[in-house]
Design brief:
Blueprint (H helix, E strand, L loop, with lengths): L21 H52 L9 H5 L25 E2 L8 E2 L15
Antiparallel strand pairs: 1-2
């Protein structure tokens, strides 16, 4: 005689697989939201700081180009120089790359640069941001 092993499953029987509950998923989402809320101001601050540093680097380039221009053309303090003279100096071929700057520097914070006279530092029109020192050349 053969015995059949038939197991009947009750509808209330527990399964052996386990899934995440809604509460666990909500806790994970809440933790992620808290981390993002803490990190976002830092990311924004770092972006502003990097824009300011790029702006200051452009101001250093403009000032160096002005000093080279002044040395080559024997210009004294107070002599006005504009961006076009730094890109294409007098007696230079336009577009030949003979200038002191390869291209007009662009401010990443959408500002504009003022070259100023020789002996004065160039400035950016942004001036200052909430997170950074004014965008002027540090001496």
């Amino acid at each position: 005689m053969t015995v059949l092993n038939i197991s009947v499953r009750s509808k209330f029987a527990t399964s052996t697989t386990r899934a995440f509950t809604l509460v666990e998923i909500m806790v994970v989402i809440a933790v992620i939201a808290i981390v993002v809320a803490i990190a976002t101001p830092t990311w924004l601050r770092q972006r502003e700081i990097s824009r300011g540093r790029a702006c200051q680097e452009n101001l250093f380039k403009i000032d160096g180009a002005k000093e080279q221009y002044a040395l080559e053309y024997r210009a004294s303090n107070g002599t006005t120089v504009d961006m076009t003279q730094l890109l294409t100096p007098p007696n230079a071929t336009a577009g030949a790359g003979e200038g002191y700057l390869k291209a007009i520097p662009t401010c990443f914070a959408n500002g504009t640069y003022t070259v100023n006279a020789i002996g004065a530092v160039p400035v950016c029109s942004i001036g200052a941001t909430a997170f950074l020192e004014p965008h002027v050349m540090q001496e």
